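All the exercises in this workshop are built on plain-text protein records. A record pairs a protein's sequence with a compact description of its fold. Backbone structure tokens are a discrete shorthand for how the chain folds in space. Once this layout is familiar, the rest of the handout is easier to follow. As an example, a complete record with its sequence and its structure tokens follows.
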Amino acid sequence: MTRLEHIHMLAHYNQWMNEKLFAAADQLGEEAVRRDAGAFFGSIWGTLNHLAVGDTLWLQRVARHDANLTCLAPVLGLPTPTALNQAVADDLAGLQSRRALLDAAFLGLAEQLNDALLDSTLAYRTTQGKAFAKRLHDVLLHVFNHQTHHRGQATTLFTQAGLDVGATDLILLLPDA
């Protein structure tokens, strides 16, 4: 599998898993999803919101890359979060809508990437203003890993709330050899 195919697969996995999590959230309902469960971001809502915050920040950083990635234009129109727990929606439906926009942006990005772009440098600043410059391929791997990490936390919270979100393994999306 090439790096481009790998990124494309991760973007599809990301969308698939997020759709599963929001289907589970719909089953639990707004009140249960917002109930503080003692997690790092408090609740299922807080965890899913944090993912949306992080993905918004990263996609906006990538959108500002010199490559002029037109697929990310909708993300540039979003307000830029200033804190990792800042609410990006008022309710579950709004958060799900933001999630769908972000997942579509990741899929569009996967389509527009090429090897030269993956090897290019992404210069960005954190929410605290600290400057960094990293290889875009490495940044994207970080972003997808970050999503998997927090979705794992979310699935634990769903289980604790009495709801099994089902199988979550990437292997389920991999084609047979």
